[in-house]
Amino acid sequence: MMRVLDLFSGIGGFSLGLEAAGMETVAFCEKDSFCRKVLAQHWPNVPIHEDIRDLDGQIYRGTVDVVCGGFPCQPFSVAGLRQGQEDDRHLWPEMLRVVRESQPRWVIGENVSGFVKMALDDVSSDLEGEGYAVRAFVLPAVAVDALHRRDRCFIIAHKKDVADTIGSRSEAWLSGQEQGQERHSGEFNHEGYQRSWWETGGEWATEPDPLRRMAHGVPNRVDRIKALGNSVVPRLVEVIGKIV
């Protein structure tokens, strides 16, 4: 089983998707106190580091296969000032340091689509300098049948001694989207994937049940909506995890 170090964890969207793909999260890193409470509720036995600046990645060298993280998008988002590397919330250098120290076989990063023009070349160059082969994809939430677009850039990198399966298998899936083929989250019929719990027991609505619970009079409403807005789409991450 592949083991995951989940950075900028939020409410656990990355881990939820990767665990649905058969992986195991061994540690989180999340600064927001509300999000840490959510993580502790759902992953009570997984340690949570509070600040990536204080995280020593060397303690995970040899014990994690994947480092993932949706590093802060504010420096690249059209909703902000788009100051890029000049923004003090630009924390990619810290994620890169943890990758360098922990030496995982795989790195999965995520950011807003505006990141592509502003910083993708630099991030790709940084990872290549550490011995990784890098691919990037802009994937929308509608690719897993969500009823909103939500374009996000996913950076997927692997050590160069790992076979490059991400190219052919991901391109086959993306080709299926373009051709309008029937598909399920993480399911490639020709590969024999099983349907995930989202297909067997979950449901996807424009405003799914968790959001309705968070939007109507319950405590921490603002915190909950903010946490959802910052989260990745777990079903999409599951697809990436299964390809990996």
Low-confidence stretches: 77-84, 177-201, 203-208, 210-215
Beta-strand residue fraction: 15-25%
Task: Please work out how many helical segments DSSP would assign.
Answer: 9
Biggest sheet: strand arrangement: 3-2-1-4-5-7-6
User: Quaternary arrangement of the chains shown?
Assistant: single chain
Structural Rg: 17 Å
- Spatial gap, N to C terminus: 12 Å
Fill in the keyword field for this structure.
244 residues; single chain; seven-stranded mixed β-sheet; alpha/beta; 9 helices; 16% strand
Explain briefly what this protein structure is.
The protein is α/β, with parallel strands linked by helices. The chain is built from nine helices and seven strands; from the N terminus they run βαβαββαβαββααααα. The N and C termini lie close together (12 Å).
Question: Can you describe what's shown?
Answer:
With 244 residues, the chain is of the alpha/beta class. Helices cover 36% and strands 16% of the residues. It is built from nine helices and seven strands. Strands 3-2-1-4-5-7-6 form a seven-stranded mixed sheet, sandwiched between helices. Helix 2 (33-42) links the parallel strand 2 and strand 3. It starts with a strand and ends with a helix.
Q: Any chance you could write out the topology, listing elements then pairs?
A:
Blueprint (H helix, E strand, L loop, with lengths): L2 E5 L5 H8 L3 E6 L3 H10 L5 E2 L16 E4 L22 H11 L3 E7 L2 H15 L2 E8 L12 E8 L6 H13 L18 H4 L8 H6 L6 H10 L3 H10 L1
Parallel strand pairs: 1-2, 1-4, 2-3, 4-5
Antiparallel strand pairs: 5-7, 6-7
Helix pairs in contact: 1-9
